[in-house]
Design goal:
186 residues, mainly alpha, 6 helices
């Protein structure tokens, strides 16, 4: 026989700010009611002590009644067999339970630390590869820029000389035209 002790304090001026009718009319969620009761219990430690004593007394009384029932009915053997079955059911688990290693730093480390470390190394390697590729591309870009600058300089020089060359060619052409006209006259 299992009994549960439910301790519901009655609303009163010293325990609740609300009267009974107002308390019943409000709709409380289970979490809100728990938070309200917890707040009240924290504010009044003597109530907590009384509640603890009452729960312990109720538990002890129930256990005593159950043992007396077993002794009266003479079913001590049945009770012990039930306990043995429950122990056997519980002991069927042969797996070792995990225990902390004792090393605080190892124990506090994340279980995913190794995976995080490996992924970080892969990311670092990838970043280094990308930086190397960027360095190579920057070298190629600077090389191409220097080539373009030299071509631009040579074109600029050619264009600046072209006026001189053009003047020379015009003078030669005039000289040749004079020669042709002299040849035609003769």
């Amino acid at each position: 026989m299992i009994q549960f002790l439910v301790c519901i304090p009655t609303p009163g001026p010293d325990l609740f700010a609300l009267d009974a009718e107002e308390y019943k009319s409000k709709s409380f969620e289970p979490g809100d009611a728990f938070a309200d009761i917890l707040t009240i219990l924290k504010s009044k430690p003597n109530i907590v002590q009384k509640l603890y004593k009452a729960l312990c007394k109720e538990l002890l009384d129930n256990m005593t009644e159950d043992l007396e029932d077993i002794l009266r009915e003479g079913s001590l053997q049945d009770g012990l067999e039930k306990v043995a079955k429950l122990i056997d059911l519980d002991s069927s688990v042969t797996e070792d339970a995990w225990r902390p290693p004792g090393n605080i730093f190892l124990h506090l480390r994340s279980l995913d630390a190794q995976i995080i470390k490996e992924e970080s190394e892969l990311l670092e390697k990838r970043v280094n590869e990308i930086e190397e590729e960027n360095a190579i591309l920057m070298k190629e870009v600077t090389h191409k820029r220097t080539e373009i600058m030299t071509i631009n300089d040579s074109i600029t020089r050619s264009l600046s000389r072209s006026s001189i060359v053009q003047d020379l060619l015009e003078k030669r052409m005039e000289g040749l035209e004079k020669c042709i006209t002299l040849l035609h006259r003769e």
